[in-house]
Amino acid sequence: MTTQPLSEARVRAGTLSAYLTSADHERALAMRARIGAVTLSGESGLRALQTLARTMSLEDFDLDPAQYAVNPKKHAQAALIDIDWEAAQRGLGLPVVRSAGIAVRKDDHEQLRAAMRTPISPGSRRLVSLHSSWLRGPALPVAIAAVRNSDDPLSFVFADLFDPFGGAGAVDGLQYLLAAASAPERPVELLRTDTQAIPFALAGGARGAIGLTSQGRHHPLPFSSKLKKEHDDRQRSAWLWLPELLGWQRGTTLGAIEPFPEIGLADCPCPPCDGEPLSVYAREWPGQVPQKVRERLQDHDADRWMTTFNRLRATSDPLQSWAAACARAVRVEAELVSEYKISALRVPTSIAQWAVETS
């Protein structure tokens, strides 16, 4: 359960966007038509935006330069290092302009100071990728102080091997950071993230950008060879966002619920699924899931989490409604285990941290 009292100054919900780590302009347009707002990433995102700008307004698009993910030693000769990212975004007329982005490693206080003090252009949002360890323990007060000592609008990304918010206290830490940055008229964003974008935006964060791929839901850190093999194995399965569990589930686990239609989890009303049961994804593909299938899954995911966000935002107390939804998700998981002996469908740890029992 999250115990952090959220800033009372932030009462207006922000917005969600779909975050694309790589995309051509046609895919970006298709996702904008479905969701309404799209955040693109890095050099491929910049190229897509440059193509789109030739024929249309870019008011529903924005860019994460993502230079926090670039290793200068490996890319010393790469042209993208020489891009003036803020100037490029302003030249395209984007509604939001972000700095190039600096990564702050675990326990690197000097890099934290640099990330918060490196000069950026007036009106730009300061883009910082923090290692997930800054969200908890003795590092959290240091991060909060750094946020309070910066007057710039902020765009956060969080780095980890897998889930930056899975550690004990990380969800509370994120809310503390949002509260610390809650000066009036100071936008604060959470980019390249997962379902945590929903409560972040409901609590008044200006933007939550949810990744359509696992690489787009955090700043991924380098894998060991063992973890890379596990990651590669995961690419052979479909992953779907289920609103009942508020997170992504492996398609192969959905076969377990097929004999129990009364559960209802396999029935999806979203337009991308077009009445087809989700159990069609209870299989593996050689190598990786085909591109067309991945895009259909992404369309399903975006429809489901945007529908969930809009429903919660329309309630009288969106954050309380969110906490209640998390509690329901935990109960659904428990019922799957107790009533049907199905343990493969799980609520993400970061969602369970939000769960509270409501009367």
Description:
This protein is α/β, with parallel strands linked by helices and 359 residues long. 35% of the residues lie in helices and 14% in strands. The protein contains eleven helices and eleven strands. The protein has helices spanning 25-35, 42-53, 85-91, 109-117, 139-148, 170-180, 197-202, 225-234, 291-313, 318-340, 349-352; strands at residues 15-20, 38-41, 61-64, 102-104, 126-131, 154-160, 188-193, 207-211, 219-220, 239-242, 247-250. Strands 1, 2, 3, 4, 5, 6, 7, 8 and 9 form a nine-stranded parallel beta sheet that branches. A two-stranded antiparallel ribbon has the order 10-11. It is globular and about 60 Å long.
Mean pLDDT equals: 91
Unreliable residue runs = 3-10, 76-80
Which sheet architecture does the biggest sheet show? Answer: 9 strands, parallel
**Category from helices, strands and their pairing:** alpha/beta
Overall, the morphology is globular
The portion of residues forming beta strands comes to 5-15%
Q: How would you summarize this macromolecular structure in one to three sentences?
A:
This protein is an alpha/beta fold and 359 residues long. The chain contains eleven helices and eleven strands.
